[in-house]
Specification:
Elements lengths: L3 E6 L3 H22 L4 H15 L3 H12 L2 H25 L9 H4 L8 H15 L7 H15 L1 H10 L8 E8 L8 H29 L7 H13 L5 H9 L18 H12 L14 H14 L6 H35 L6 H16 L19 H4 L9 H6 L2 H7 L5 H13 L1 E10 L9 E2 L3 E12 H9 L9 H16 L6 H18 L17 H11 L5 H20 L4 H42 L22 E7 L4 E2 L4 E3 L5 E9 L5 E11 L7 E10 L17 H23 L1
Parallel strand pairs: 1-2, 4-11
Antiparallel strand pairs: 3-5, 5-9, 6-7, 6-8, 6-10, 10-11
Helix pairs in contact: 1-4, 2-3, 6-7, 7-8, 10-14, 11-13, 12-13, 13-14, 14-15, 19-20, 23-24, 23-25
Subcellular location: Endoplasmic reticulum membrane
Subunit structure: The ER translocon complex consists of channel-forming core components SEC61A1, SEC61B and SEC61G and different auxiliary components such as SEC62 and SEC63.
Organism: Oreochromis niloticus
């Protein structure tokens, strides 16, 4: 009986299979993930951005890096070397395939399958004379020839070959281990054990431990857990945090401490350069003896951030450190916003002091300031190229009164050119190109209570959903719309001139909140809607005989149907007259009146069913949109931000939230909108107040990249009293036990018998 045999690969052939598979598992995924992007595509992208972003610091750094970096070349060389090794191993394996072919005696004797016995003997004699050891031939080859001859001429050997593939009969099943035999050789045992112990007992635990230690120190946004705790401590300690205090807390983050971050550095020259910058900046609370604000790393980071906001020049060594600090600040400020919002909503339930709304909004403003390299008190016009402090006096003069970017866009082209006469033609075109690339956002707000019968009725304590639709355009598109003239035609010149004057007034107020106009249009829409709304049907007064009067039926029918055409209304009027005339004559015929009442009830049911279907379809569509939004993973690459002094390419993102400006409280959790390219729909949820009444909230949209583009829209909330739950609703009167079921059936039977007796009487 055949057994099993395990053997190591003495020749090393099977080891090549293992090695080829191992190299392939490494090379193929590495090529997919690590192959550098096409440098030509990156160059073309940068070339397309050059006209607008050519003066930005991040653009110049990215262009320099793409031209001088040798990392992509090294990656390509390493991956190509890996593919070369993989192909060589595959070629080697392909040459080893013949060693594992099935045994064929005809092939050994160089005969065609099915050769006759005489041909086999003749070929055997020829090969024996050639390979016999006595004739100077190879002994191993002769043994193979003799074995093949026996397999074809000996009956037992032939049966063994046909049944088992081997003339010698069934042999032991051989399993090859894809490792060379020298690995288990006793001479090399110590070396193998040493390598094994080093790999699996030293290197692997160190790698896993390092990864685990790093993962437990950082949050999901790659912010140190200790930094998050630091922010939480100071936000609870200082609920109303002004901008100076906020900068101190921000720069105390442990990401800037060399003991926690290897990228942070403390140089020997800092003892000379940092005090010099402190003298130039003035009062920055250096003597504050509250840890960790007076630590060297915190003081250095604070000085570098304030120098960045003041657009001061620093040395080359400090400039490198400044870029590192400035690049880290947007993510840290976002973490501060998250921490502050969580503390606010936790304080509502637990009753401890929490940061105020002004602290959250100061974090958002500071992000804008750092991205643009501007102080809070500076004009947003300084975000544009070639604008300096001395140029602002031309803009804020009584003639132009340009203080914001929107004011600059709203000017006529001739006035704008005259105001910016200090710029040459080329610089003026560059300023207009940059201004045209700035975003212009419009917000559409929809207020509703989802999963409720009446979605427009807001009751106390209900979950309110505010759906905000954001539409992004460029300033140049809005600018072109404002420059379009209103056409005038022939005899209607006077009226069109008046219309043009009205539209020009409206156009000059594109950047203002048109609350009055919105209120008027809302009132007019409400009036139209009230005209179209069907009036409730009056109660049907039962007469002595249990029928309904014909005139009442006609009136109810005409009042409930509100969407009929004009011709149908005329027909209804004539029918109403005829029915009223026939009412006296047909008092004793209730069948016709019953038919009219049935038609009327069917119409009402159809209308109610149609409204319910529309509401149900709208609800299903909103649920499907939310499910798709949860399943979709949108790219956070939106539009590159124009920032003259930010060292890294920044994408254009926004914060959207609801706040009570009077009470200075946050109503909904801020949503960080990172996927707004053209249009984005955002849902903000919050609980309605527990008391009925009218409330005035604000929907606020803030940029995390630009100054002066924030928007605030009012949100009126009318809270009604919640409907009382019906305690004895027949639908929920379900008996708990079988005895109650029997009692209920008995009582129903008794009532039915009493009703039958009354009918018989």
């Amino acid at each position: 009986m055949a057994g099993q045999q395990f053997q190591y690969d003495d020749s090393g052939n099977t080891f090549f299979y293992f090695l080829t598979s191992f190299v392939g598992l490494i090379v193929i995924p590495a090529t997919y993930y690590l192959w550098p992007r096409d440098q030509n595509a990156e160059q073309l992208r940068l070339k397309s951005l050059r006209r607008v972003h050519g003066r930005c610091l991040w653009y110049r750094l990215r262009l320099m890096k793409s031209q001088q970096s040798i990392v992509p070349t090294l990656k390509k060389a390493a991956l190509l070397f890996g593919w070369l090794v993989f192909l060589l191993l595959a070629y080697k394996v392909s040459k080893l395939d013949r060693e594992y072919q099935e045994y064929n005696p005809y092939e050994v004797l160089s005969l065609d399958p099915g050769a006759s016995l005489s041909e086999i003997k003749k070929q055997y004699r020829v090969l024996s004379l050639k390979y016999h050891p006595d004739k100077g031939g190879d002994e191993a080859t002769f043994m193979r020839i003799a074995k093949a001859y026996a397999a074809l001429t000996n009956e037992q050997s032939r049966q063994n070959w046909e049944m088992y593939g081997n003339p010698d009969g069934p042999g032991a099943t051989s399993f090859g281990i894809a490792l060379p035999a020298w690995i288990v050789d006793q001479k090399n045992s110590m070396l193998v054990l040493l390598v094994y112990g080093l790999a699996f007992m030293v290197i692997l635990p160190v790698v896993v431990g390092t990864w685990w230690y790093r993962s437990i120190r950082y949050s999901g946004d790659q912010i140190l857990i200790n930094t998050t705790q630091l922010f939480m401590h100071f936000m609870c300690k200082t609920p109303n945090m002004n901008m100076k205090r906020l900068v101190m807390v921000l720069t105390a983050a442990l990401e800037f401490d060399p003991r926690n971050n290897k990228e942070a550095t403390i140089r020997p020259t800092d003892n000379v350069e940092v005090p010099q910058l402190i003298r130039e900046l003035g009062n920055i609370n250096v003597k504050k003896k509250e840890p960790p604000f007076y630590y060297p790393y915190s003081l250095k980071a604070r000085v570098l951030v304030l120098a960045h906001l003041a657009r001061m020049d620093v040395s080359e060594e400090l400039e490198e450190d400044q870029r590192f600090v400035v690049k880290k600040t947007p993510a840290l400020l976002q973490e501060m916003i998250n921490v502050g919002c969580q503390l606010i909503f936790m304080a509502n339930s637990r009753g401890f002091s929490a940061p105020r709304l002004v602290t959250i909004e100061n974090c958002m403003k500071l992000t804008q300031m750092i991205v643009q390299g501007l102080k809070e008190s500076k004009s947003p016009l300084l975000q544009l190229p070639h604008f300096e402090e001395e140029h602002l006096r031309y803009c804020i003069s009584k003639k132009y009164k340009v203080r914001t970017l929107q004011d600059l866009v709203s000017l006529k082209d001739s006035d704008r050119r005259n105001m910016l006469r200090f710029l040459g033609e080329e610089k003026y075109d560059e300023v207009m190109a940059v201004l045209g690339s700035f975003p212009h956002i419009t917000m559409d707000i929809k207020l509703q209570v989802l999963d409720d019968e009446d979605s427009s009725n807001i009751t106390a304590g209900s979950i309110v959903t505010v759906t905000v639709t954001l539409n992004r355009k460029r300033m140049v598109d809005v600018f072109e719309q404002e420059q379009e003239p209103v056409p005038c035609q022939g005899d209607e010149a006077a009226t069109t001139e008046e219309a043009q004057g009205d539209t020009s007034k409206a156009k000059t107020k594109v950047w203002q909140n048109k609350n009055k106009g919105a209120k008027k249009t809302a009132k007019s829409k409400k009036k139209k809607l009230t005209k179209k709304k069907p009036t409730p049907a009056p109660a049907k007064n039962k007469q002595a005989n249990g029928t309904v009067a014909g005139n009442e039926v006609t009136t109810t029918t005409t009042t409930t149907v509100a969407t009929v055409a004009t011709k149908e209304e005329d027909d209804d009027g004539s029918d109403k007259g005829s029915e009223s005339d026939e009412g006296e004559a047909n008092k004793d015929s209730p069948s016709e009146r019953d038919e009219d009442s049935d038609k009327q009830s069917d119409t009402e049911v159809d209308e109610m069913a149609g409204d319910d279907e529309e509401e149900w379809e709208a609800l299903q569509q909103s649920i499907q949109r939310r499910e798709r939004a949860l399943l979709e993973t949108k790219s956070k690459v939106t539009h590159p931000v124009y920032s003259l002094y930010f060292p890294e390419e920044k994408q254009e993102w926004w914060w959207l939230y609801i706040a009570d400006r009077r009470e200075h409280t946050l109503v909904s959790m801020p949503c960080h909108v990172c996927t707004l390219k053209d249009t984005e729909e955002v849902e903000l949820k919050f609980s309605a107040p527990s008391k009925t009444g009218n409330y005035q909230y604000s929907v606020i949209l803030r940029s995390d990249s630009y100054l002066g583009l924030d928007q605030i829209k009012p949100l009126k909330l009318e809270v009604h009293e919640a409907k009382a739950m019906l305690d004895n609703h027949p639908q929920w009167d379900i008996p708990d036990t079988e005895e109650e079921d029997e009692e209920q059936e008995d009582s129903d039977g008794i009532e039915e018998s009493e009703d039958d007796d009354e009918d018989n009487d």
